[in-house]
Amino acid sequence: MEEDNNKDVKKEAMEWVKSILLAVAIAILIKTFIFNTTYVLGNSMYPTLHERDRLFANKIPLYFSGPDRGEIIVLKAPDATNKDYIKRVIGIEGDTVAIIDGKVYLNGNVLEENYIDEGAYTHIYGDNYWEVPKGHVFVLGDNREEGASKDSRYFGCIPIDTVKGITSFRYFPFNKNFGKIE
Known about the structure:
Blueprint: H1 2-33, E1 35-39, E2 54-58, H2 60-64, E3 72-76, E4 84-92, E5 96-100, E6 103-106, E7 109-110, E8 129-131, E9 136-140, H3 152-155, E10 158-159, E11 163-172, E12 179-180
Antiparallel strand pairs: 1-2, 2-11, 3-4, 3-11, 4-9, 5-6, 5-8, 6-7, 9-10, 11-12
């Protein structure tokens, strides 16, 4: 009887180990291929995102196409190791982006940017004209105060393969900002 009890305990322990390993494997697959979570450090995306906001970054669209204009992305920082940036896509391959007198021009037309503060002035730090090459995007932070955002004005267009996900949902804090990101 005691031997049967030991077998039952061992069998149940093995079932628990298998279940835990399966759950860990599924979590790793989801985090690697489907979505990840990230949080905001700094104010480069203010007023859209705030310090300590927590976001979901969806990876699935990246398997079928690159990010589109207006989407907020998480990207591997081109000027730092083990660091990510969160920025808004302004231009995609084939687009031209110019910053003239504090306004952003996309393909020759003033870009309507209802996500930045009214009257915000977009500063330049050297170049003011970019042609977005194939396989790249041009990104800006929503905070256009001088020095508030390291983005394509500093490091140029970024390769799409450095994009880690597209963010469209804020899951923390649980206040008026919870939910879909515009």
